[in-house]
Amino acid sequence: MGIRNQTQVVEFVFLGFSGILYGQTFLALAFLAIYLVTVLGNLMIVIVIQLDPSLHSHMYYFLSHLSSLDICLSSVTVPKMVVNFLRQQQTISYNQCMAQMFFLMSFTGAETALLAVMAYDRYAAICKPLHYSHLMNTKVCTILAFATWVWGFLNSVLHTALSTRLEFCGVNQIHHIFCDLPPLMKMACNDAHINEVVDHVAGLFMGGGPFAFTIFSYVFILSSILRIRSTTGKRKAFSTCASHLTVVFIYYGNALLNYQGPSTGYSLATGTLVSVMFCVITPMLNPLIYSLRNKEVKGALKKAAESWRKCEHPQSLS
User: Is 60 left (phi over 0), alpha (psi -120 to 50) or beta?
Assistant: First the structure.
């Protein structure tokens, strides 16, 4: 209760969709459809990986964690947007805002770390094939997967704890479409210098570190692929990385635009579009990318569809 009195704000208003006066019901249905596709698509990837023995490898183990993170990331922001569209009132309570920011930063931080782990897995498989079973055994993979979730959680705890000291002095309009640290710091009427310093340092370490590791991993991976003499061997090696590399470019591209975009000359409409791409569209694209570009996943999905049809029409077997 002391925090709420200190901030003098009990509710925030999102301005990201303020320019949309009509068609909010249509937007609610559109965002709901995207959310359902995201959840069902990623859930399908997780289930297929669990059920198909051919996908019981470390690469697909990490992919199942990526799909789980995408479900969580989408669930943090999209349902609230849908509810606000239906209510035609873009508001969120102070406590809900802090909770949304906490989970948003947890899942985005964890996904950043997980993409780096997946890059290392591809590096070990392609550049160190003779030592792969030792470098990426089941115990190591379990520890790395668990560490990515902890990585995101620790990052979020730090920022959320510091955010509770911000005072808003009655200012409750957020120039964004969800609660995140940068717009909240801009709204604060007290000194947010500590928050800004921690944000920059943590951004370089928690975000820049995994990004740099991912890039360096793929430099070594591509160098190893280019040294393969046969064209078939090059194509096979690169095909195991193509889906992940596509996801990396999409995720980091949108993340950089969302968090490191220019501070001036960046309109609210542009920021809203970038944020929608990052937290709404990107989680939906990942299962599509892996299902369309990965032969093993496509094969497993076909087998699952055939098994489902046989269960639905058992008389066709006779």
Answer: alpha
Mean pLDDT score, 88-113: 92
**Cβ neighbours of residue 142 closer than 8 Å, sequence gap 6 or more:** none
* 3-state secondary structure (DSSP) of residue 253: helix
Q: How far apart are the first and last CA of the chain?
A: 68
Residue matched to tokens 């193509």 = 242
Yes or no: say if 6 and 169 are a contact pair by the CB < 8 Å rule. Answer: no
Q: Who contacts 47 (Cβ-Cβ below 8 Å, separation ≥6)? A: 304
Is 266 part of a structural domain of the chain? yes
For the record, the structure tokens of 40 come out as: 């069902």
**Domain coverage including residue 264:** 7-317
Measured in whole angstroms, how far is the alpha carbon of residue 56 from the centre of its chain? 23
Within a domain: 171: yes
Closest CA to 123 of 207, 236, 237, 252: 237
Q: How many domains does the chain have?
A: 1
Q: What's 42's domain CATH number?
A: 1.20.1070.10
The CB density around residue 304, as the number of other CB atoms within 10 Å, is: 15
115-147: burial string, b at 16+ Cβ within 10 Å, e else: bbbbbbbbbbbbbeeeebeeebeeeebeebbee
> Quick check: is 79 in a domain?
yes
Name the strands in the sheet holding 91-93, side by side, starting at the edge strand that comes first in the sequence: 91-93, 11-14, 173-174
Task: State whether the Cα torsion 274-102-243-118 is positive or negative.
Answer: positive
Q: How far is CA 9 from CA 3, 168, 186, 196, 220, in A?
A: 9, 7, 15, 21, 51
Residue closest to 105 by CA, chosen among 73, 142, 67, 129: 73
Element (H, E) at 92: strand 91-93
Q: Is the residue at 1 inside a domain?
A: no
The per-residue pLDDT of the chain, averaged, comes to 84
Q: What is the pLDDT of residues 194-213, one digit of tens each?
A: 888 888 888 788 888 898 99
Kindly report the pTM of this predicted structure: 0.87
Placement of tokens 């959320």 in the chain: 160
